[in-house]
Design goal:
By secondary structure, the chain is of the alpha/beta class. It has helices spanning 4-8, 13-16, 22-33, 41-54, 73-81, 95-109, 124-134, 150-156, 176-185, 208-221, 243-246, 279-291, 298-307, 312-338, 360-365, 371-382, 410-415, 427-442; strands at 60-61, 118-121, 138-144, 160-165, 190-196, 224-228, 251-256, 269-272, 351-352, 384-385, 387-388, 401-404. Helices cover 44% and strands 11% of the residues. The chain has a seven-stranded mixed beta sheet with strand order 2-8-7-6-5-3-4, with helices on both faces. The longest helix has 27 residues, at 312-338. The protein binds 4'-deoxy-4'-aminopyridoxal-5'-phosphate and glutamic acid. The site of 4'-deoxy-4'-aminopyridoxal-5'-phosphate has 13 residues, from helix 7.
Amino acid sequence: MTHASDSARPADASLSETPSSAVDRLEKGYGRAGEATRSSDTLLINEQSRLLEAGGRRIFKFGFGQSPFPVFTPAVDALAKHAAEKAYLPVQGLPALREQVARFHSDIDHTRWDAERIIVGPGSKLLLFALMKSLPEADILIPAPSWVSYAPQARMAGQRAVRLDASFETRWQVTPEQLEAHCIENPERLKLLILNAPGNPTGLSPDVETQERLANVARRHGVLVLADEIYGLLHHRGEHRAFALDYPEGTVTTSGLSKWCGAGGWRLGVMHVPSELGQEVFARIVGMASETWSSVTSPIQYAAITAYTRTPDLDAYVQRQREVLSEIGQWCAARLNDAKVRTHAPNGGFYLFPDFEAHREALAARGITTSAELTARLLEDAGVALLPGSAFGCDPSQLTVRLAYVDFDGDALMKSEQATLEQATTTTLIKGMDAIVEWLNHGRCS
Ligand code: PMP
Ligand code: GLU
């Protein structure tokens, strides 16, 4: 039988064409397409730390931002109970789960989450990408520093990534004035501003007044906001202020089980798209889901219903994480500040964003002039894994790093009510912090 494509090909094609392998064609194609999509820095440091440990080195693991706490036990039990669920579920997510998520966030954040406008995805990461991809041509406004994947995702979605530089002095927050200036200079383009609070890599949230002013500028200029609130429940004092409170009609909110429920590997994220934004954008996101991931793993969705059901036990579980993270985060920030590494005390989540600027001269004398050189040498000399500020969009010469204070046994701390820093499980974390300071002062580590 002859296929249509076969009949269209000259019989002696193999003689007349210079043979070109699939590999050649790929290389040629990528040459034209420009910069390759590299592996994400967060996942890379995880692999590197693992390899170094396998080779016998002791590594203080402050690089990868994974929750150290166990998954909420009733959710694990629910997962076991639903292990035999095998059917594909609705693309948008199980209705009972969406209802529960809507109730949960409306209750906790005092915002209106409408179950009809929620989509469940395999991690919020893919939902963020789907949103960017579903927009018409847009500027994606990305604060620097901010999470490693926003800018690559914007480029992969074919959008223009615009960096808005923040500084230590503004607590690493984009200012309303900056947003306004960009809007005035680019009046025609659709804009999506990404805000992440409490922040990765900073651990910081904007104060209420700044948030209200940002919301007003966004409203006045018709800027869409993507509020990535995956660390919202881990605000150390339980005072997370959802951006949608200040700008309900223009804020798309994302969250999920990865951080507050300790279940990064379960891959379940949620997104709420307010009805004011209309049908088209939502339909496109759901369409993209249907053509790519189909639906999130069935047993995980059933288990998530339990995770999203607020009970006194769930509140206590979240509260214990806040206490532990607050105690450790405050202590780590103070330890760094004592060593003249300026660091804001965190509001939430499990990251710090220390700035080694005061040590610039001494570091330069040791051949270190960029954040990437700084983290490479800290890993090599002191066995401390961190990520450079440049991975979060900062100027490479800015001497900032991200420290994820998660190198402790969250299981043990969850079960105990004693002060965190007096327990054996935080010894490694304390030693890791000592290793940074010792390396800074003496150029080596004992
Ligand atoms: N946003 C931020 C700021 C993150 O740190 C992460 C890391 N997990 C994500 C989104 C994505 O989380 P997930 O895909 O696990 O929901
Ligand atoms: N969000 C985590 C981090 O920033 C890791 C997971 C990921 O990047 O997907 O380290």
